[in-house]
Every structure is written in structure tokens, then in C-alpha cells.
Design brief:
mainly beta
């Protein structure tokens, strides 16, 4: 059984930082496209950052230079370091794993990030 569990969200002031974690069980990282998505109230879910099959990182233009995606394959954990946070980064952040070889696709439960003074 696959589980993706996000943690690390919270309330932070503009300009602050947070690090999100996604602990995965039941999957092997190298067999999945891993990424972070977010969904703000009234908006569609959007891709924030992800790894390509070759391990190259991709970022939404809105977070380039501020967010960093990383992973620890030994711990089966993915991270999102978020710096210089802005109010418009406020959203529920989700971890996603999509199989490279099947239609299997998994989501975590999400973690709330609120950027406000």
C-alpha cells in the first residue's frame, strides 16, 4: 500500500522560510515521477516543482530562485525548501508520485502553508 505523508507546513511571515517533507512508503522513488503541487482557494492545483526521469529539477516560474526541491532516496523522502515566501504562496501543498511505467498516481493529504503578517 502506498502512502505519501507531507509535513512542515504552517504560518510564516512574508520573507520567511519553511521546509516541507514528503515521506513515501510503498514505492521506489526511481520508478516514479515525484513532484510538489499546490492549490490555493478558488484556484486550480498547479505544479510547483518536480524531478524529471533523469533527475533534473523543474520549477514553476513563480517559485524559481526561491524554492528548492530535493530528495533523499535512502529515506524515501522528498523535500521542498521554500525561501522568501510571499502571501501568494499561501496554499495547500501536495506531494505527488506518478509511475513512469503505469497509470498509477498517488497524492498525499496535503499540508497548509499560510504566508501572512
Amino acid at each position: 500500500q502506498v502512502h505519501l505523508v507531507e509535513s512542515g507546513g504552517g504560518l510564516v511571515q512574508p520573507g520567511g522560510s519553511l521546509r516541507l517533507s514528503c515521506a513515501a512508503s510503498g514505492i521506489i522513488f526511481r520508478n516514479y515521477a515525484m513532484g510538489w503541487y499546490r492549490q490555493a482557494p478558488g484556484k486550480q492545483r498547479e505544479l510547483v516543482a518536480s524531478f524529471t526521469r533523469g533527475g533534473i529539477t523543474n520549477y514553476a516560474d513563480s517559485v524559481k530562485g526561491r524554492f528548492t526541491i530535493s530528495r533523499d532516496t535512502a529515506k524515501n523522502t522528498m523535500y521542498l525548501q521554500m525561501n522568501s515566501l510571499k502571501p501568494e504562496d499561501t496554499a495547500v501543498y501536495y506531494c505527488n508520485a506518478g509511475s513512469w511505467v503505469s497509470t498509477a498516481n498517488y497524492w498525499g493529504q496535503g499540508t497548509q502553508v499560510t504566508v501572512s503578517s
